[in-house]
């Protein structure tokens, strides 16, 4: 997969054996055929995280990316998908916290080191790890199932809750329990490496 990603320039239509191989691969995706429909072409382009990934264009004009891992391994286990949906539900509030902390400026002090950091180098850190908060909430909602996960939609970068009231319930829990701070990205990433697997 890495060799194929490197072989094709951004936005170029993938052809030949690579196109045939991708068409075969997507038939193993858990959301095939509703996600892919009638694919007219594959190409490589940036993903939401700054890397490169495979994209497809359908005959109806829909353009979307897809994870080759899902084609090979299927969807992650339910608990992991619920965790991803929890993160998606809380993301607007986390972003709003960061925006309020910077208060229209591009620079602010890191709440861990005190050094001045730029907006682009700042992360919102959960003092109590997000994984711990989401795990507790999921454990107190044992009735959650795959039926609560929204079907993959064009442009989606991860699982979300199908019912907005479920997402709102986690947002309310997160708002009442999470202790947030804005820190330098490297500080947050080093903490995450030690506490999350």
Total strands: the figure is 7
Overall pLDDT level: 88
- Element string (H = helix, E = strand): HHEEEHHEEEHHEH
Q: How much strand content do the residues show?
A: 15-25%
In terms of per-residue confidence, which ranges show pLDDT below 50 for 5 or more consecutive residues? 193-197
The biggest beta sheet, please?
Answer: 3 strands, antiparallel
Helix content: 40-55%
Tally of structural domains:
2
Please tell me what the overall shape is.
Answer: globular
Which strand order do you get reading across the main beta sheet? Answer: 1-2-3
Number of helices: 7
Derived structural class: alpha+beta
End-to-end separation: 24 Å
Assembly form of the protein: single chain
**Radius of gyration (Å):** 19 Å
Task: Describe this entry's structure for a reader.
The chain has 197 residues and is α+β, with helices and mostly antiparallel strands. The protein folds into two domains: 2-73, Nuclear Transport Factor 2, Chain: A (Roll), CATH 3.10.450.40; 78-195, no CATH class. The chain has helices spanning 2-7, 16-26, 68-73, 78-102, 130-139, 164-177, 185-195; strands at 39-46, 52-58, 63-66, 107-109, 116-118, 122-126, 180-184. Strands 1-2-3 form a three-stranded antiparallel beta sheet, with helices on one face.
């Amino acid at each position: 997969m890495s060799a194929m990603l490197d072989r094709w320039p951004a936005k170029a239509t993938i052809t030949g054996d690579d196109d045939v191989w991708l068409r075969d691969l997507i038939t193993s995706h858990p959301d095939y055929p509703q996600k892919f429909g009638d694919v007219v072409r594959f190409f490589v382009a940036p993903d939401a995280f700054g890397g490169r990934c495979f994209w497809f264009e359908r005959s109806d004009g829909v353009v979307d990316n897809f994870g080759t891992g899902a084609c090979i391994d299927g969807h992650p286990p339910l608990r992991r998908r619920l965790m991803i949906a929890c993160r998606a539900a809380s993301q607007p509030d986390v972003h709003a916290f960061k925006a309020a902390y910077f208060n229209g400026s591009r620079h602010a002090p890191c709440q861990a080191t005190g050094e001045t950091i730029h907006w682009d180098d700042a992360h919102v850190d959960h003092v109590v790890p997000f994984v711990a908060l989401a795990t507790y909430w999921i454990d107190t909602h044992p009735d959650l199932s795959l039926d609560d996960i929204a079907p993959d939609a064009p442009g989606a970068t991860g699982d979300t809750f199908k019912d907005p009231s479920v997402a709102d319930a986690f947002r309310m829990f997160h708002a009442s329990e999470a202790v947030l701070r804005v820190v330098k990205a490297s500080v947050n990433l080093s903490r995450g490496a030690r506490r999350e697997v």
